[in-house]
Design brief:
269 residues; mainly alpha; 7 helices; rod-shaped
C-alpha cells in the first residue's frame, strides 16, 4: 500500500503543476476575450461580458486551489486532500456552468446587441465630431467597414454621414490616408457585423470554459484515489499493529498451566 500511496501522491503533485499551468493559460485567454468584448461594451451591453468575467475569476481561484492541493499532497493529510478534491469539483462545475451561460448568451446576443446599439445611436445622434461618443463610432466604422446601425440611411436626419463611413476620419491615420471627400461609402450597417463579432467571442469563451472543465476534472479522480490509498494504507497499518500485539500476548509463558507439566514434589527432610 505504501508504494501505491506514493504513486498517487506524485501523480497528484504532477496534476497540481498542470492545474496551475492551466489556470495561467485560462487567465490569459479569458482576460484577452474579456478585453475584446469590453472595448465594444457601449454597443453590445455589459451583460454579454459576464461569462468572460466569471471565467477570469475562476482562473484566479484555480491558482489558489493548485497551491492548496500541492501542500495537502505533500503532507498526506486525508481530510485536507478530500477538501481539496471538493474544491476542484466546485471549480469544474462552475466552469461548466460558465460554458452553458456563454452558450445561452451566444444564442440571445442578437437582441442585446441590436437594442443596446440602437439606444446608444439615439443617445449620441448629433454629437460633436470630436466628442468621445463620435470617436467610438468612428472606431467601429473603420474596424468593421460599416456605417451606422443598419446603414448610412441612419444619418439621413442629421444631414451628413461621418467620414468614418468611408474608412476616413480623425482616427484613420493608421488605416487609410485622410481625405476630405468620401469616395466609397460603406453600405452595410454595423449591427450585423458587431453581432457576428460578439457571437464569435462568446463561442471562444464557451469553448475555453468547456476545455478547462474537462482537463481539470482529471484532478478529481487523482485526488480522491489518493485519499482512498491513504485510508487503505492506514487500515493495513492498524491491522499489522493489532496482529503484532495479539501474537505478543499469545507468546506469554503459561507452562505452569500445562497438563503435561511435572507434578510438584514435597521437600524431603
Amino acid at each position: 500500500m505504501g508504494l501505491s500511496t506514493n504513486c498517487w501522491k506524485y501523480l497528484v503533485l504532477t496534476f497540481n503543476v498542470l492545474f496551475a499551468m492551466s489556470a495561467v493559460v485560462l487567465f490569459g485567454a479569458s482576460g484577452f476575450l474579456l478585453y475584446k468584448l469590453f472595448i465594444y461594451r457601449h454597443f453590445i451591453g455589459v451583460n454579454v461580458e459576464y461569462p468572460a468575467i466569471l471565467l477570469l475569476m475562476m482562473a484566479i481561484i484555480t491558482c489558489s486551489i493548485a497551491w492548496i492541493g500541492w501542500r495537502t499532497a505533500v503532507s498526506l493529510h486525508q481530510i485536507h486532500i478530500i477538501i481539496t478534491g471538493i474544491l476542484i469539483v466546485l471549480v469544474v462545475i462552475i466552469e461548466f456552468t460558465c460554458f452553458v451561460w456563454a452558450m445561452v448568451v451566444w444564442d440571445n446576443v442578437e437582441i442585446d446587441v441590436k437594442t443596446t446599439m440602437t439606444q446608444f445611436f439615439e443617445d449620441t445622434r448629433g454629437a460633436d465630431a470630436n466628442s468621445a461618443e463620435s470617436l467610438k463610432w468612428d472606431r467601429l466604422h473603420v474596424k468593421f467597414e460599416c456605417c451606422g446601425v443598419t446603414g448610412p440611411n441612419d444619418y439621413a436626419t442629421s444631414g451628413h454621414v461621418p467620414f468614418s463611413c468611408c474608412g476616413q476620419g480623425p482616427l484613420d491615420s493608421l488605416h487609410k490616408p485622410y481625405a476630405s471627400e468620401c469616395a466609397a461609402l460603406y453600405l452595410r450597417g454595423c449591427g450585423k457585423q458587431l453581432h457576428e463579432y460578439t457571437r464569435q467571442q462568446l463561442m471562444l469563451v464557451s469553448m475555453t470554459a468547456l476545455c478547462a472543465s474537462i482537463i481539470q476534472s482529471t484532478g478529481i479522480f487523482c485526488t480522491f484515489f489518493l485519499a482512498h490509498a491513504i485510508r487503505q494504507s492506514r487500515r493495513a497499518s492498524i491491522r499489522n499493529s493489532t496482529a503484532l500485539r495479539e501474537s505478543t500476548f499469545a507468546a506469554a509463558d503459561d507452562s505452569l498451566l500445562s497438563p503435561t507439566a511435572p507434578a510438584p514434589t514435597l521437600p524431603k527432610y
